[in-house]
User: Which sequence fits this backbone?
């Protein structure tokens, strides 16, 4: 079973995931994310820390794809994904986004610091 953390800074939702994303964890994660969305008045970004992520079980793929479509409709503009050097995590994210027909801009970085730096350079850390 996986664990997650969701926090907001400026126009960024920070997501930390560890372990394997199962159906119950995914459902609770989505509910946690949804509570932040009314706070955004303009397009927003996410910083997704997948360093400790153990991928997701196949049964949640459709649920996760639907969630990605939903947040895109609610202003999600770019995702900065921290994957270290893991090609497998990148492939899993790309497969998920492809299955949701996502047009989301995704930026892959190796470290959390690189992710925050990218977001700051592109103005997402300013208040929503």
Assistant:
């Amino acid at each position: 079973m996986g664990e997650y953390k969701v926090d907001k800074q400026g126009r960024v939702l920070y997501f930390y995931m560890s372990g394997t994303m199962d159906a119950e964890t995914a459902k609770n994660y989505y509910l946690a994310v949804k509570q932040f969305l009314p706070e955004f008045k303009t397009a927003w970004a996410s910083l997704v820390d997948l360093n400790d992520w153990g991928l997701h079980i196949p049964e949640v793929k459709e649920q996760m794809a639907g969630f990605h479509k939903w947040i895109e409709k609610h202003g999600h503009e770019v995702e900065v994904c921290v994957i270290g050097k893991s090609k497998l995590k990148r492939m899993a994210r790309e497969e998920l986004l492809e299955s949701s027909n996502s047009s989301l801009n995704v930026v892959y970085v190796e470290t959390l610091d690189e992710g925050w730096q990218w977001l700051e350079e592109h103005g997402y850390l300013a208040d929503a």
Summary: The chain is about 40% helix and 35% strand.
